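Final report, Chapter 2: Outcomes

The project's central promise was a pipeline that accepts a single protein chain and returns its three-dimensional structure in a standardized token representation, suitable for archiving and comparison. That pipeline is now operational. To close this chapter, we reproduce one record exactly as it appears in the project archive, with the input sequence first and the structure output second.
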Amino acid sequence: MTQKKDHASHNVVSTTTGLDSNANSSAAQRLRVLTYLRSNGSLSTIEARHCIDVMHPAMRVLELRRAGHEVQTVWSNEFTPEGRRHRIARYFLIKEASYAG
């Protein structure tokens, strides 16, 4: 995926998908989740909410799975930045969907 910087708004816009990476659409959030998984190997619910502004990561991961991506969920107990302990999901990208093109 190639990206260009929209200097007026400081948003990253994908030149292949045309999506603004800072938008709140489901598609933009899926793109942020997938990009984060590619770059970091895993993503927790807490990271999704605080680092990439995805409030319902479970739904975005479900949508990625429906698109053919293999994502594994591991449950753990972690602390939020506010200091509260929660049972959260950590998602791992096992295999990306193969697209015929």
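Archive annotation: The beta strands are 3-6, 11-14, 42-44, 70-79, 85-95.
This record, like all others produced under the grant, will remain available to the consortium after the project formally closes.
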